[in-house]
Amino acid sequence: MIYDKHIFICTNQRAEGATRKSCGEAHGLEIVDSFKKILKEKQLAIKVRAQKAGCLDICDYGQTLVVYPEGVFYVGVTLGDVEEIINEHIINNRVVTRLLLETKKQK
Ligand code: FES
Questions:
Q1: Which ligand 1 atom minimizes the distance to the CA of 28?
Q2: Is residue 55 in contact with ligand 1, taking CB distance under 6 Å?
Q3: Which among 34, 50, 62, 93 is most buried, taking Cβ atoms within 10 Å?
Q4: Is the pTM higher than 0.90?
């Protein structure tokens, strides 16, 4: 199966007391479930896949995910951002600038 877009969502959970942040603590699994649910509701699940991923090594900005084939990294993603990413990026090919890794690095 070749997907039009493939979303990898970090769900890494570090051991208690670890010095680096973990996307698992930032609701990574809930965000995966939310992507899957909304993609299904919008009948996009055949062309777009969202799945769990291990650490994407961009741990300091909060919940991280990457959308391929573009290779666009979003950070600090919350449950409330999922529908916007789907509507803007996945459906309309418009990057959600405020969540881009590059945008967060500039702050
Ligand atoms: S723990 Fe999520 S990017 Fe590293």
A1: 2
A2: yes
A3: 50
A4: yes
Q: How far apart are CA 72 and CA 104, in angstroms?
A: 13
Find out whether 77 and 64 touch, Cβ atoms under 8 Å: yes
- Dist CA 25 CA 13 (whole Å): 7
Could you report the per-residue pLDDT of 45-102, keeping only the tens digit for each? Answer: 999 999 999 999 999 999 999 999 999 999 999 999 999 999 999 999 999 999 999 8
Total structural domains within the chain: 1
CA–centroid distance, residue 35 to ligand 1 (Å): 18
**How far is the centre of ligand 1, averaged over its atoms, from the C-alpha of 20 (Å)?**
9
